[in-house]
């Protein structure tokens, strides 16, 4: 880089002007963005901001860093390595010193950042696995709450990875010749692709869980309505006869019968049993009277 400054003072002056312009506005930005610019001599420059940490509970709690990148220079602002648990700063510094240009150095950082995120995604995968088996063991409204909490967390992960994928595409768009076929570029791209494939797979799993919950809820709702309908139908004779004999008309000969009370009980029981038997023969009661098995979705 020092040799470049000596041999190309005009290039250095134009780049410094671009950096000064970037520095004036960098603190105003608190969201993901990528801009690709060209200096007057055709030199490519990419500048932007990237959110690399996000609290899943609080929207305003996130970490963002700003960067300026050319083939020979990489500048970052607000990049806190101490919150990146998988980063070994000593090893990282040695590796980045071995890179041939600034683009490779930036790609090396992105690759290690992806490794950091993939470790955290493994924890998300474990939580999702526990959720899947919880549905089998004890399904309820609490499970549905956990499903949608996982879905929201997945949205946040995708919101973090999409700008990184866009950043990779922007670097590819700028077509830096020195890094076009490098091992660092290949490794970083593979990690980004792996992360996107994982997130797509988790999204399909959560969608399947939601679809399963909808089927179960629909089935149980139908069972409840069916049960209430059958119970109402079975007790119709009791309600009808009770309403009939509960009237207060003056002339009701049944009230004077010696065995009227016993006959009314026999009539109610007989009509109820006959009605139940009819429903049973028709198959309309289904398995409503059978107990639900533990760990079963429908039985």
TrEMBL record:
Known catalytic reactions: Mg(2+)(in) = Mg(2+)(out)
Localization per record: Cell membrane
Gene3D superfamilies named among the record's database cross-references: Magnesium transport protein CorA, transmembrane region
Cellular component annotations (GO), alphabetically ordered: plasma membrane
A molecular function GO annotation: magnesium ion binding
Topology within the bilayer: Multi-pass membrane protein
Domain of life: Bacteria
Transmembrane segments: 228-247, 259-279
Signal peptide positions (record): none
Entry-linked Pfam families: CorA
UniProt keyword terms in alphabetical order: Cell membrane, Ion transport, Magnesium, Membrane, Transmembrane, Transmembrane helix, Transport
InterPro entries: CorA_TM1_TM2 (IPR045863), MgTranspt_CorA/ZnTranspt_ZntB (IPR002523)
Function of the protein: Mediates influx of magnesium ions. Alternates between open and closed states. Activated by low cytoplasmic Mg(2+) levels. Inactive when cytoplasmic Mg(2+) levels are high.
UniProt family annotation: Belongs to the CorA metal ion transporter (MIT) (TC 1.A.35) family.
Name used for this protein in its record: Mg2+ transporter protein, CorA-like protein
Provenance organism: Cytobacillus solani
């Amino acid at each position: 880089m020092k040799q470049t400054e000596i041999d190309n003072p005009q290039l250095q002056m134009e780049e410094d002007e671009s950096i000064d312009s970037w520095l004036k506005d960098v603190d105003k930005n608190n969201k993901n963005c990528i801009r690709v610019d060209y200096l007057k001599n055709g030199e490519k420059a990419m500048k932007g901001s990237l959110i690399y940490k996000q609290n899943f509970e609080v929207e305003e709690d996130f970490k963002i860093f700003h960067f300026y990148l050319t083939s020979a220079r990489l500048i970052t602002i607000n990049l806190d390595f101490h919150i990146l648990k998988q980063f070994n700063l000593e090893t990282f510094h040695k590796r980045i010193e071995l890179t041939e240009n600034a683009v490779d150095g930036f790609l090396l950082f992105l690759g290690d950042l992806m490794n950091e995120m993939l470790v955290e995604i493994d924890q998300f995968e474990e939580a999702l696995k526990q959720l899947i088996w919880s549905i089998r063991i004890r399904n309820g409204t609490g499970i549905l709450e956990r499903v949608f909490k996982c879905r929201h967390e997945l949205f946040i992960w995708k919101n973090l990875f999409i700008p990184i994928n866009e950043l990779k595409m922007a670097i590819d768009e700028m077509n830096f010749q020195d890094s076009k076929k490098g091992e660092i570029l290949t490794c970083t791209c593979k990690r980004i692709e792996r992360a996107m494939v994982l997130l797509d797979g988790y999204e399909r799993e959560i969608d399947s869980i939601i679809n399963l919950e909808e089927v179960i809820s629909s089935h149980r709702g139908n069972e409840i309505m069916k049960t209430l309908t059958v119970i109402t139908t079975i007790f119709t004779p009791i309600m009808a006869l009770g309403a009939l004999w509960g009237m207060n008309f003056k002339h009701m000969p049944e009230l004077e019968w010696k065995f009227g009370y016993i006959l009314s009980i026999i009539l109610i029981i007989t009509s109820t049993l006959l009605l139940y038997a009819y429903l049973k023969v028709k198959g309309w009661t289904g398995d409503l009277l059978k107990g639900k098995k533990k760990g079963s979705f429908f039985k």
